[in-house]
Every structure is written in structure tokens, then in C-alpha cells.
Amino acid sequence: MLVTGLHVFVATILIRSVLMTPPLANGLAFVSATLFSYVINTRWSFSSACHGKNLFRFIVVSMIGLLFAISISGMAAFYGMHYWYGMAGVVGIVTPISFLLHSLWTYD
């Protein structure tokens, strides 16, 4: 929830204040939230140490999520939807898929 909030906050600021396109803003928000997510998920959610193996796997899963985030946001923009719809799609689809992949593979 905290990481999702960070993503939404960063994307909204980039879209409204910097006038960045929603797909790019969501991509950058995803990257910043992912860095924060690695640390808190590794230490607290999965009670693991930060090291090369889980960092590599975390990045792989996160890159898959990034592609989904940009694609979902891009589709919403393409169809002329308000950027909040794209963001809702990113949060509702990418977040649970990422958590599942991390629990099954990143921190096995």
C-alpha cells in the first residue's frame, strides 16, 4: 500500500506539475516505487537480506511489471481515458502479479 501510494504520488506530480505524458510519468513512478519496494519487501515482507540473487530476480520481475505499467497506461491514453483510469489499471493489475511472482520466485 505504501509503495502504491508512492507510485500514485510521483505519477500525479509528474503529470500535473511537470506536464509529463501519463505513460512516461507512470514509468518513472514505477521505477522510483520499485527501488523503495525492494528494500521494504526484502527486509520486512519476506524477512530476507538484500543480496545479489534476490536483487537480480526482483529487477527481472520489476521489469516485467514496468512493461505492463507502461502498456496499461499507454492503452488508457490511446483511448482518450483520464490518466486515473490508466493508473488504476496499473495498480490493480501490476501490483498483485508482482507480489505473486516475488513470493514464488524472487524469495523462494
Report on the structure:
With about 110 residues, the chain is mostly helical. The mean pLDDT is about 90. It has 4 helices and no strands. It has helices at about 1-15, 20-45, 50-80, 85-105. The relative contact order is 0.16. The longest helix has 27 residues, at about 50-80. It is elongated. About 85% of the residues lie in helices and about 0% in strands. Helix 2 packs antiparallel against helix 3.
Short description:
The chain is an all-alpha fold and 108 residues long. 83% of the residues lie in helices and 0% in strands.
**Mean of pLDDT:** 92
Shape: elongated
Give the ordered list of helices and strands. Answer: HHHH
Structural class: mainly alpha
List the helices and strands and how they pair.
Elements: H1 2-16, H2 22-45, H3 52-78, H4 83-106
Helix pairs in contact: 1-2, 2-3, 3-4
Features:
108 residues; mainly alpha; elongated
